[in-house]
Design brief:
Blueprint: H1 7-25, H2 30-44, H3 46-53, H4 55-58, H5 63-88, H6 93-96, H7 116-131, H8 136-152, H9 158-179
Length: about 180
Amino acid sequence: MKPHPPAVFDRLDLIEWQLCRRLAGFNVHPPWLALLRLSSKLGDWPLWVGLILAQPLLQPAGSGHRMAQYIVTALVAIGLYRLLKTRLCRERPFITFNGIIRCSEPARDRYSFPSGHTMHAVLFCVLTAAHTPWLLPWLIPAALLIAVSRVGLGLHYISDVAAGALLGLGFAVASLQLAG
């Protein structure tokens, strides 16, 4: 028997679908679609692993501690994110509604709530703001593009991205307080 998402998602899906469809309409422009796909791929893991591995180069003093903090925070976040995703079972927009050009890579699973890509983007932006704020002019646009790509490619609703951002913020703040 297929799990059924909470009824609130059924109502949100219909409300958000119009905006998701409008955003996905920009995908007819090949450069924009390529940028969304690249952003989504970078948000899978390469950007964040690169940021973790670059810590000794960015700020040698305490880099081992920061690397451990980033890794542990990301792993704890992944654990809760997966628990939520498999319990809430909200179908991705491209599954629920037809007519969305989506990422050329298949989604890792069929559920969309919350957005793990956005969760990690915000989490790493907040941690970076605390340790190497001079990177933010490059990291914030990347994080925004990652979040937009998830909606634009039909992989998430806007509320999925908002929930992912709030989770990322919460995990990063908690991590900074615990490590502080």
